[in-house]
Amino acid sequence: MSTDLPGHLSVAEAESESAAHLSTGVLGTADIVFMVMAAAAPMGGVVMLFPLAFAFGNGVGVPATYLGAIIAMLLFAIGYVRIIPHVQNAGAFYAYIAAGVGRVTGLAAAYIAAFSYFALSASTLTALAYFCERFFEQDFGLSLHWSVWAFAGLLLIAILSYHRITVAAKVLGFALVAEVVVILVLDFAILAQTGWRGVNFHSFTVSSMVAPGLGVAAIYAFNTMLGVEGTAIYQEEARNPLVTVPRATYVAVVLVGLFYVFTAWCLVMAVGDNIATVAKADPGALVINQTSSHVGKWFAHAVSVLVLTSTFAGGLGLFNNSARYLYALGRDGVLPKALAKTHPRHRSPHIATWVLTVALIIVLMLGVLAGLHPLTTLSSSLVGLGSVGLMALLAITSLIIPIYFARQRKFGLKITMAPAVGGLVIGSATVLAFLNYHLLTGVDSVVINRLPYLLVALAIVGGVQALWLRRNDPVRYQRIASTRIDKDPQE
After folding, report:
1. pLDDT for res 462
2. Nearest-10 crossing angle of helices 380-406, 103-140
3. What percent of the chain is predicted at pLDDT more than 90?
4. Backbone region of residue 335 per phi and psi (left: phi > 0; alpha: psi in -120 to 50; beta: other values)
5. How buried is 480 (Cβ within 10 angstroms: 0-12 exposed, 13-18 middle, 19+ buried)?
6. Nearest 10 degrees: CA dihedral of 208, 44, 174, 394?
7. Distance between CA 4 and CA 209 in Å, rounded?
8. CB under 8 Å to 379, separation ≥6 — which residues?
9. What stretch of H or E contains 422?
């Protein structure tokens, strides 16, 4: 039997303190994969982030950079799926870091994770509002301020998150399938018009990959694949989680990664070696123009519509992740216990859902009052902030997995070498993201470009709270990252 944090609480003990369960056994492998992939917003990633990666990154080497990111994420996943059965907690990264190096660091990580998902959710919501404003004004002549669309989108997200998780999974699944199919149609149309003679693998050469801008391209590559942690976040709601969650983790990494590599490669062949110049001239029109050229204007219109559904799906998935972090912290007694309550019928973390909704309303209102642009200021700065935070936690978790198993005197390729190498690669990309944060935000504001230091402040707050609890409230301190959803796995 595996060892874990001492003094962990059983489910019964958690229930006795008003920490009710989420729905159990309602999500299969496909459901979890849909939740994770939808949070990555494939259509949004292709239309909004690819052009920036081409323009400011290593140009034709972008497909190889994405391939390298897949390899690093798979190395991470090899160790990740092996620690999941030992530390079963809806807090995921939070629980794993606490198990590896202690509760003080674990609680610091929890605050970074919850805030990062919140920032990404807010970023996605403001981007959705911007694209809704443009779409309905250009296509229907309906001119409404972006905040109207933001509040409408937030209301719908809150309603779906309030209900049973399977409702959100079905919505995300439908949106995901539609956007992936549309992009793949574009990809194969490009291949068909290129013909066998036009197919080349120049993008995957070492010289193309290590060209100037590799660091920037790596930032966007990892940014589009953030969210793989979601497979563990939903383990309490999964059917047969010891099988479903690891399977969903591998499937999500491979499907998301290969989709992006294949699409980037096709776009390079469609545009040519000057793709960096073309993308920089008009980033927002790159994919739409290629769709019009290779498939037709009517299909380009479909892409414009699916950008909206993709962005909404991403916002919903990120919102659910953040809500479950608040739920985990409430159940462990770190934040108010009310956050750990679940709806009597839907079994959703409904209190955490409404808390996040109010917080997002405040962010939107501040943005409106300050007259900030929803895309170039609000969305760009928030996506950079959330991405840096999650990349850091991804790297730390990967490096901590070998430490966790080493304490049990267990060593091996899958639990030591693979996650350690993956963590070093992701850690390097995180440093690049921090140093080049201004490229992620797209603005020159000193205040906005120093937002990553807010993550450091949150980590300090979490660490100080844990130290205070250790000294003044040992019982609550022992609960940090300790609430389990299952018994220790048998070896």
Report:
1. 94
2. 150
3. 28
4. beta
5. buried
6. 70
7. 42
8. 123, 124, 126, 127, 130
9. helix 418-435
Q: Nearest to residue 437, comparing CAs of 421, 463, 420, 456?
A: 456
Q: How many residues make up the chain in this entry?
A: 491
**φ, ψ (nearest 5 deg) of residue 27:** -110, 125
pLDDT at 152: 94
- pLDDT at residue 39, rounded to an integer: 62
Domains of the chain, residue spans: 11-479
Q: Could you tell me where the beta strands, DSSP code E, fall in 421-482?
A: none
Residue 450 contacts residue 461 (beta carbons within 8 Å): no
Matching residue, tokens 């674990």: 106
Residue type, 444: D
| 445 contacts 373 by C-beta, under 8 angstroms | no
Note the pLDDT of residue 461: 95
**What are the structure tokens assigned to 320, written together?**
């659910």
User: Is the distance from CB of 235 to CB of 241 less than 8 angstroms?
Assistant: yes
Distances (CA, A) of 491 to 3, 86, 362: 11, 10, 48
- How much is the pLDDT for 109? 92
Phi, psi of 211 (to 5 degrees): -65, 160
Here the tokens at position 336 are 């108010």
Q: How many CB atoms lie within 10 A of CB 204?
A: 15
Helix (H) or strand (E) holding 136: helix 103-140
- Kindly write down the DSSP assignment for every residue of 171-219, as one continuous string: HHHHHHHHHHHHHHHHHHHHHHHHHHHH---GGGSHHHHTSTTHHHHHH
How many H helices and E strands in the chain?
23, 0
Strand-pairing partners, residue 13, are none
- Contact assessment for residue 309 and residue 181, using Cβ atoms and an 8 Å cutoff: no
User: What does the pLDDT read at residue 442?
Assistant: 60
CATH number for the region 11-479 comes to: 1.20.1740.10
Q: What is the DSSP string of 77-106?
A: HHHHHHHTTTS--TTTHHHHHHHHH-HHHH
Residues of the chain with pLDDT under 50: 1-19, 485-491
List, in sequence order, every residue forming a beta bridge with 238; answer none if it has no partner. Answer: 27
Token digits of residue 448: 């906005």
Task: Name beta bridge partners: 27.
Answer: 238
DSSP 3-state of 320:
helix
Half-sphere exposure of 106 (CA within 13 A, CB side): 30
Residue 177, pLDDT score: 80
Using an 8 Å Cβ cutoff, are 57 and 65 in contact?
Answer: yes
Please report the pLDDT score of residue 115 as a whole number: 93
Backbone φ and ψ for 226, nearest 5 degrees, come out as: -70, 145
